[in-house]
Amino acid sequence: MTDSDRRGDIGADPGSADTVPTFRAPAPEDQSQKDHLPPPPKPAAFKGFTHSACEYYPCHPGVRRAFNCLFCYCPLIERECPGPYQLFTDARGTPRKDCSACRLPHDGIAPSWTFIQRWLHAPAFGGQPQSRARIRALSQALRPPVSE
């Protein structure tokens, strides 16, 4: 057994007791590479974008603020939500939501993000027509707690 084995040196050559693992610092970045990098994202850029080159844009008329295309397919389709929807029955007899009249997930980048995040905690869609009383109760339940 060599001294290296007894000391437990990582990466040491078993044939040499004097070999010590070396670590190299990363090479400094080349300035020409930095010139070709995209600018850093704006704060909260992940909350949405507008894809004005889309062949369906604008897919929901009446949006008054920056159109948010992040929720092109609304994640609330399987949740109870306050958006205006109509019920229809699919070929299997299952009630579904037609949300084509809803603008809530598209109306403004930050407001639509906040709206979706809040309503993702709503219960699953139960196949019932909208009820103001049920939506009001859900809205109260989903409100963030007031900090003291």
* Largest sheet composition: 2 strands, antiparallel
Q: Please give the share of residues in helix.
A: 10-25%
Helix-strand category: mainly alpha
- The side-by-side strand order for the widest beta sheet comes to 1-2
Strand tally is 2
Approximately what portion of the residues adopt beta-strand conformation?
Answer: 5-15%
Which of globular, elongated, flat, extended, rod-shaped describes the shape?
A: globular
String of helices and strands: HHEEHH
Note poorly predicted spans: 4-14
> What is the gyration radius calculated from CA atoms?
28 Å
The number of helical segments is: 4
Distance between the termini: 66 Å
Which whole number gives the mean pLDDT?
79
Biased composition (Basic and acidic residues): 1-10
Region (Disordered): 1-44
Domain Cysteine-rich small: 49-107
Could you characterize the architecture of this molecule?
Residues 49-107 form the Cysteine-rich small domain. Residues 1-10 have a biased composition (Basic and acidic residues). Residues 1-44 are annotated as: Disordered. With 148 residues, the protein is mainly alpha-helical. The N and C termini lie far apart (66 Å). Helices cover 22% and strands 5% of the residues. A two-stranded antiparallel sheet has the order 1-2. It has a domain at 45-136.
